[in-house]
Each structure stands twice: as structure tokens, then as C-alpha cells.
Amino acid sequence: MTLVIDRTQLRHPEKAHRPDTPTLRKPDWIRVKAPVSKEYAVTKSIVREHNLKTVCEEAGCPNIGECWTHRHATMMIMGDTCTRACAFCNVKTGLPHALDAEEPVNVAKAVAKLGLKHVVITSVDRDDLADGGADHFAQTINAIRAQSPGTTIEVLTPDFLRKDGALDVVMAARPDVFNHNLETVPRLYLTVRPGARYFASLRLLERAKELVPTGFTKSGLMVGLGETREEIMQVMDDLRAAGVDFLTIGQYLQPTKKHARLERFWSPEEFRGLEAIARAKGFLMVSASPLTRSSYHADADFAQMQANRAAKHRTP
Description:
Blueprint: H1 38-49, H2 55-58, H3 64-69, E1 75-77, E2 81-82, E3 92-93, H4 103-114, E4 118-123, H5 134-147, E5 152-156, H6 166-172, E6 177-179, H7 189-192, H8 198-211, E7 216-223, H9 229-241, E8 246-251, H10 268-280, E9 285-288, H11 298-314
Parallel strand pairs: 1-4, 2-3, 4-5, 5-6, 6-7, 7-8, 8-9
């Protein structure tokens, strides 16, 4: 039996939704159509057939219709229950079940059946495990490589906080992209991401690059939680100092009234401005738009990032 915890008990009251605060109306640029395509149904069928979870469903991603129509599903391993209660996330919190030993092979079978050229593998936080689930990530990477050797693999991992050696295990499996999202600016960590530590996450990204210098590293931010433009630019500088190659920036959408309050919607023009600044700061790849998420267009973005690196190395 899974114990599910009410998130309102784990959140700072000053950031929780207040009944007297009106919910912001979604602007036109953030609206998406309901998924109805045949390919969407095929993707859903393959996911169900192999008893898999996807972050697309569990986190209520607005891009699920578009991505699943192109058979781009982001696999979420190690169950659907997280040991943390981040104020922005719609994944349930509680005591997770034991790991499924068959999951790495089942993920690999689904990747092969979907015909993915690039796959993103993410997970819930598993603070209950001695290695935070690092070996399970490695097993999944290896299983995919055995089934689909031509598929490039991107992992979006937890922070492995206080799990010595965990990152080394993941990086030894040589993912093509190592992704860990900072999510927000340092000032908001205690209310938005209370179980994490900003500088520990930053160091994780830096260490991933040290372990595999030829690999790509990636991180993402949400906007709309009360951060300032200046704070975002400071995070950009911190990420570049850590050698991060790829930055994603997307609009935070409040999943329910119990989650962190949405302070405002950033306009498409503002996102274009953030993208221009990030590119000027030296990121190989930047994706910034209201609907940008970590795995949104990850396949095309990976190909472009490879091309950008090659072009950079050709430059005298």
C-alpha cells in the first residue's frame, strides 16, 4: 500500500495557494489542444503494454498530445511515487514500492517498439534507496543500448543528495546527455524545492561534466514563481561556470490550488529575450518558450546541439 502525503502539510504557508488570491487566466499562447491522434493512441498502448510510467502523464505535461503523436514519450522509472514534495510538482509523494527488476528491459523494449532515435529517461526522487536509484538508471541505459544501439540516451536524474558515488555509477554507463534541473533561483529553493540544495545541484552538473568531458550536460528553469530577470541571469552564469551546455526555460503552470502559487505569466517576447541572453552567455543550445519542458523536442535539440558543437570546433 502506498502512503500518500498531503502536500499542504509540507509547504511553507506564505507560498501556498490562498483562497482569496484569484487564479490567473491562461493567455492564448499557453493553451494546447486535447490529444486525439491515432499515433497518440499507439504510443499510449505501447506504454501500457510494458507497464511503464511516463512523466508526460504523471506530471500532467501540456505537450503530451504533440509529443505522443510523434511517439516521443519520456519514461519515468522507479515508480510513480516520490520521496519528496516539491511545491511545483504534480507527481504524488509518499513511500515508494520496491524497484521492478524487469523495468530496465521493459523500457528498452518500449523504446525499440516506438522506434525512438533519442530517448529521455527520468525518475522520481528515491531518497529511500542507498544509491538513490543510480544503478537502476545505469541498468536502463545498458538495456536500451543492447536493444537499440543507435538510440541516443538522455537521463534527467534526481540530485542524489548525500548519495556518495551515485553520480559516478550513472556516468559510467555513458549517457549521451546528463540532465538535472535546477528548476528555480536560489532564493526560492526553501519554498519551491525544499528537499534540494541549489549548490549541491549545481555541483552535480559540474561533476557530471568532469566525469565525462565529451558528454553533454543540460539543466532547466521554470519562470512564473516570483523570480526576477536578474536572478535568472545569475543562474545562467552559475550554469555556464559549471560547464553546462544546454539550458531550457519554460513557464510554470500551477497543477492544483495546493501547489506553489503562479505569480505571473511571462510573455513570448520575454522568453525570446531570455533565450538571446543565454546564447550570448555561451550555451551551446537554448530552448526558451512558454511550453518548453526538459524533454520537449529533445531529439531535434540534441541533433542541433551536436551540430553546434561541431561548428564551434571548426571555428578558427
